[in-house]
Structures are given as C-alpha cells and as structure tokens.
Specification:
It contains 16 helices and 16 strands. By secondary structure, it is α/β, with parallel strands linked by helices. The N terminus is likely disordered. The strands form 5 sheets. Strands 6, 9, 12, 13, 14, 15 and 16 form a 7-stranded mixed sheet that branches.
Amino acid sequence: MSLRPLIDLAAENERVHALAGRVLAAADGGEGVSLRASTTLRPLLLAALLEDDRGLAGRPALLVAADDRAARDLAADLRAYLAPRRVRLYPSRGTGYASSVTPPPHLVGLRIDALDALSREADAVVVASAVALAEAVPDASLRPAGFEIAKGDEIDLGAVAGSGPQGRIVRADVEAAAGRAGAAAPASAPSPAFDPAPADEIVPLSGVRRAIARTLTQAWQTIPHVIDYREVDATALLTTRRELRARAERDGEEELARALTVTPLVVKICALTLRRHRHVNASIDLEREQILLRGAINIGIATAAPDGLMVPVVHDADRRTVAEIAVEVAALGAAARDRTLTPAQLAGGTFTVNNYGGLGIWLGTPIIPPPQVANFGLGRIEERPVVRDGEVVVRPILPLAVSGDHRLLDGHTLAAFVSDTIELLSAPSLLLAELR
C-alpha cells in the first residue's frame, strides 16, 4: 500500500491549519496534501497508513517533526514499517529551528511536486524542521499558483473564496482578491515627519579612558580571579563610625566629621590585617618566577571620576590613624573629581578597596589591577532580618566580595585573610590590639 502525502505541522492553532490547508489545495494540477493538527506524530502516521491514497499513489509521504531527535525516531519507525522501502531523513543542519506554530510560507505553499524533487525513490521523507525542508527544497517555483501574489499584497488566503473544484483557490481568485484590496484601500496617511537620526560619531580612545581599557583588559585576560563572597553584621562598625563623628563634631572638626565614612575604617582594618597576610599584599612575576612580598602597605581607593575610574593611593595606611586616612581619602576623592591628582598620588598601590555602596550599588565584582593580587569590594549596607541567639532580629548587613589572584592565592589563603578582616569589621574595638 502506498502512503498518502502528509504534512504534520505539530501545531495546535486551528486557524493556521485551516489557512494552510486552503493554500495547499491551490496547488497546480489539482494535487492536494492531507493536513492534520496533532501534537504527536505517531497516531497521525498510523492513520495515514490506513487511508485510501485517492489517486495519489506513488507519491512519497512528507513528515515534519519538531526537532532532530523526533525526526530520527520517526524515520526509524517508518523504516521498520515500510522495509525494505526507503525512507529519506533530512536533519536540521544545525539551524536550531524547530517547527513553529505558524508555519513559514515556504512550507505552507509547498507543492506536492517538491517531494519528487527531494527523492524520486523514497516512499517517505522525514525532515527535522521547516527550515530543514526549505534547505532541501529551495525552488520557489514549487509553490502553489497565486501564492507569491498573496504574500506580496498581504492577502489573507483564509478569507478568499475558492472558485476551483471543491472550493480550491486558483490564481484568478488571488488576483481578484488583490484587485479588491487595492481598490478598497484608502489613501495612506502621510508619514509623520521625523528629524533624521543623529549620525554615528567616532571618539578617539585616548588619555585616561585608553589607560583604563588597557589595564582592565590586561587584568581580565591575565589574572585568574577567585572571589570570596561574605556578609558582615555592621552594627559595631556603624556604632564606631557614629562615635568617631560625634567626637570630631564636639572638637569642632567639621571636615573630619564629614570625612568619617565607612571607607576609612575599612581601609584601616584591611591595612592592619595585611600585616599578617603578606601574600595578599604582594605581586607575582611569572617571567622571572618570583613572588614579591611588599613591605609597604599602600591602599588604592577606587574612585569614580569624570574621565573614568581612578585609583588614588593612601600610602602607609597601616601606620596612619583612622582620622588621617579619612581626611586623605576625602582629599584624594576631591582631587580625582577635579582632575588634579598627581602621578605620585596614583602610584605605588599594593592593595585596592572598592566601595560599591558609595555608588548606591548592592555589590559588584572587583577587578584586580595588576600587579596587585587582591581587590576588596564592599557593598551597600542594608537592614535585614537575621537570627541571633535563636531570635529573629534586624541588623545592618554589609556584603563583601573580595577578589584574589588565583595564581598566588588559593581559596583557603584568601578566605583566611577575609575572615580576619571580618573579625575586625564585626568588632572594631579589637583594633586597639593591632595598634602597636
């Protein structure tokens, strides 16, 4: 028994199937194609095997699957049923396009003669997608009469009454519909006037932006980043800042009071912790096969400036008081915004602190500036519910993201530094033990 020609669009849109059926019925020579809506192809296939071919004997069956795997399974089933007849399989050729609910025009308007073009010897042709079918049969002449007219004039073939046998749509029907649509179409309203879009502009990559681009490219391409994410209860840290501010205000030091933000405290805590973690305050030279453990602890402060990211440096931060660091951080930030930083203020950094919270950002990903091996990122402090002594309480939580150069710092090495830093952040009074 020969198979009746069949297309399965694997779709559930009834209007699409009705439209597709009418278009397919308009094929030259009065040839038709069975079209069924189905979410699974196997029951439909078995029904087709039992149907009368209605004068279409000898035509191969066309089955459009949802993807390559479904196409392979269908081909295997057909080969088992039709053996030793041939079944031709057309994969998707890596297009990644599965059969859609709305079939594309090159599938809807495909003449049944196209099956002969695919293979004159096969009894069934299985394609993995509509695109796979189009690649296999790219000849537009195999589309039904009037199809190109309908597509060009945007004629809804579902609304066209066919005058051919059994209501089939013929070329004259499509031409008549196109003429009526043209006569009935009102004069199009003038297009609103728009100013032309601005032309593209080429801006030279120079100055600070060029330096930033080169430094960050080198950092991301050459430094394998390992990042330690933590959260810290900042209750004691904020209390310490508040007390230091109050003291500065009582002493009439308004400038110092304004400068006493969280950043100077974090800089001081990191600097003291780096004394006990020298590999975090270091650099690595693969060409010379050397690790340089820095003697000085110079903390760079990532700062947003008009020309881009700047990292001025607080030199000898471990030997400076919190008040001195606060005043210098404020002065360096002002100089960065005023574009008055000196080369000396930008040189010699051995470690970087990046306060995302100052920009209103919850947290970011710190990029390590070479030749340093770590970047300490702190985010925005937010009040959140936490469990303390079995009870839910609200606490200010400081998120941290600390990046380390994995060539020098292993996960446990970086974690040890971060844990010691968190100990001081959680209890700044312990700084008294470090001030010696």
